[in-house]
Amino acid sequence: FRLHKAPVIALGKQTWDGRHLLYSADISGIINIWDLRMFGRGAIRSIAAHAGKLTSMVVSEFDDDALLVSGSTNRCIKVINPSGHVKKEIKFHEGFLSTRIGPVTSLAYHPRRSMLAAGFGDS
Closest Cα partner for 45 from 29, 60, 23, 67? Predict the structure, then answer.
């Protein structure tokens, strides 16, 4: 994990498109994707997921729903596919009757369903 310049705070594994992938996320918001068959050659992709401090990352274990989800202190959750494209972004919104979320503290996938849970600090 020498590619990371900040402390690694989360790891995840996933099989996608016949490849065995390992994800490593550091506190600065960088997520690296490693192919375990070519582990000594470095990361196959590096994603700048968040501008703020990354606090949590989780990877789906479902082949038909290959996603990684990351959360940060800037009140944002990003759903990203293994190619690095952001599929969905859940953000804090200002305004009357809007839902306010605090900084993301934890993320977890349901073990048998495609369901995500998120924990937040007080806003």
Answer: 23
CB 57 within 8 A of CB 70: yes
pLDDT tens digits for 61-78?
A: 765 667 889 999 888 899
> What is the sign, positive or negative, of the torsion defined by CA atoms of 7, 9, 10, 11?
positive
pTM equals 0.82
**Distances 94 to 6, 64, 97, 111 between C-alpha atoms, Å:** 31, 35, 9, 33
What are the tokens at 94? Answer: 């200002």
d(CA 62, CA 112): 9
7-31 pLDDT per residue, tens: 899 999 888 778 888 899 999 998 9
Which secondary structure element, helix H or strand E, spans residue 30, and what is its range?
A: strand 30-35
